[in-house]
Amino acid sequence: MTADNSKIISLKNWKEAALELREETSFLNYLKALSFHDLMNEAESARNELNSGSINKEVTLKSKTILKEFSNRLKADGLSAGIISITESAEKKLSKLKSFF
Predict the structure, then answer these.
(1) pTM of the predicted structure, to 2 decimals
(2) Angstrom distance (rounded) from CA 79 to CA 70
(3) Would you say residue 42 has pLDDT above 60?
(4) Rg from Cα positions in the chain
(5) Dihedral of CA 19/25/30/36: which sign?
(6) Is residue 64 a contact partner of residue 91, using CB atoms and an 8 Å limit?
(7) How far from chain centre, in Å, is Cα 12?
(8) Residue 95 CA to its chain's centroid (Å)
(9) For the chain, which residues make up each domain, given as ranges?
(10) Where are the alpha helices (H) located in the chain, listed in sequence order?
(11) Using CA atoms, how far apart are residues 18 and 24, in angstroms rounded to an integer?
Protein backbone atom coordinates (compact mmCIF):
# COMPACT_ATOMS: atom_id res chain seq x y z
CA MET A 1 0.00 0.00 0.00
CA THR A 2 1.42 3.38 -0.92
CA ALA A 3 0.67 6.68 0.73
CA ASP A 4 0.17 9.89 -1.16
CA ASN A 5 2.27 12.28 0.94
CA SER A 6 1.09 15.30 -1.03
CA LYS A 7 -2.29 15.02 0.70
CA ILE A 8 -0.87 14.70 4.22
CA ILE A 9 -0.36 17.80 6.33
CA SER A 10 1.22 17.93 9.73
CA LEU A 11 -1.03 18.55 12.69
CA LYS A 12 1.31 21.31 13.86
CA ASN A 13 1.04 23.18 10.54
CA TRP A 14 -2.73 22.77 10.54
CA LYS A 15 -3.00 24.15 14.09
CA GLU A 16 -0.76 27.10 13.22
CA ALA A 17 -2.83 27.89 10.13
CA ALA A 18 -6.08 27.62 12.09
CA LEU A 19 -4.73 29.91 14.83
CA GLU A 20 -3.56 32.46 12.27
CA LEU A 21 -6.97 32.41 10.58
CA ARG A 22 -8.72 33.01 13.92
CA GLU A 23 -6.35 35.87 14.77
CA GLU A 24 -6.81 37.42 11.33
CA THR A 25 -10.60 37.13 11.56
CA SER A 26 -10.63 38.67 15.02
CA PHE A 27 -8.39 41.58 13.98
CA LEU A 28 -10.40 42.09 10.78
CA ASN A 29 -13.59 42.38 12.84
CA TYR A 30 -11.85 44.99 15.00
CA LEU A 31 -10.71 46.93 11.93
CA LYS A 32 -14.20 46.87 10.41
CA ALA A 33 -15.50 48.69 13.48
CA LEU A 34 -12.98 51.53 13.12
CA SER A 35 -13.58 54.82 11.39
CA PHE A 36 -11.40 55.53 8.37
CA HIS A 37 -9.28 57.90 10.46
CA ASP A 38 -8.69 55.23 13.11
CA LEU A 39 -7.88 52.69 10.41
CA MET A 40 -5.27 55.11 9.05
CA ASN A 41 -3.80 55.38 12.56
CA GLU A 42 -3.58 51.57 12.79
CA ALA A 43 -1.89 51.49 9.37
CA GLU A 44 0.60 54.14 10.48
CA SER A 45 1.34 52.15 13.62
CA ALA A 46 1.92 48.99 11.56
CA ARG A 47 4.17 50.89 9.15
CA ASN A 48 6.24 52.19 12.06
CA GLU A 49 6.57 48.66 13.43
CA LEU A 50 7.72 47.39 10.03
CA ASN A 51 10.20 50.25 9.68
CA SER A 52 11.61 49.69 13.17
CA GLY A 53 12.96 46.35 12.02
CA SER A 54 11.06 44.29 14.59
CA ILE A 55 9.33 42.12 12.01
CA ASN A 56 7.58 39.05 13.38
CA LYS A 57 4.49 36.96 12.64
CA GLU A 58 2.24 39.35 14.54
CA VAL A 59 3.42 42.41 12.61
CA THR A 60 3.12 40.68 9.24
CA LEU A 61 -0.37 39.40 10.09
CA LYS A 62 -1.41 42.86 11.27
CA SER A 63 -0.09 44.49 8.09
CA LYS A 64 -1.73 41.92 5.83
CA THR A 65 -5.06 42.31 7.63
CA ILE A 66 -4.94 46.11 7.44
CA LEU A 67 -4.30 45.87 3.69
CA LYS A 68 -7.24 43.50 3.38
CA GLU A 69 -9.53 45.95 5.22
CA PHE A 70 -8.42 48.86 3.03
CA SER A 71 -9.09 46.71 -0.01
CA ASN A 72 -12.55 45.75 1.27
CA ARG A 73 -13.46 49.38 1.94
CA LEU A 74 -12.23 50.55 -1.43
CA LYS A 75 -14.13 47.76 -3.19
CA ALA A 76 -17.27 49.02 -1.52
CA ASP A 77 -16.54 52.49 -2.88
CA GLY A 78 -15.75 51.21 -6.38
CA LEU A 79 -12.11 52.32 -6.20
CA SER A 80 -10.51 48.90 -6.01
CA ALA A 81 -8.87 48.49 -9.42
CA GLY A 82 -5.48 49.91 -8.41
CA ILE A 83 -5.47 48.77 -4.81
CA ILE A 84 -5.99 45.10 -5.69
CA SER A 85 -2.63 44.79 -7.45
CA ILE A 86 -0.89 46.72 -4.66
CA THR A 87 -2.52 44.50 -2.02
CA GLU A 88 -1.60 41.28 -3.83
CA SER A 89 2.00 42.40 -4.19
CA ALA A 90 2.24 43.42 -0.54
CA GLU A 91 0.60 40.17 0.63
CA LYS A 92 3.14 38.13 -1.36
CA LYS A 93 6.01 40.06 0.21
CA LEU A 94 4.53 39.69 3.70
CA SER A 95 4.06 35.95 3.13
CA LYS A 96 7.72 35.67 2.18
CA LEU A 97 8.68 37.54 5.36
CA LYS A 98 6.43 35.29 7.42
CA SER A 99 8.15 32.20 6.06
CA PHE A 100 11.38 33.32 7.75
CA PHE A 101 9.82 32.87 11.19
Answers:
(1) 0.66
(2) 11
(3) yes
(4) 16
(5) positive
(6) yes
(7) 20
(8) 8
(9) 10-98
(10) 11-33, 36-51, 57-77, 80-98
(11) 10
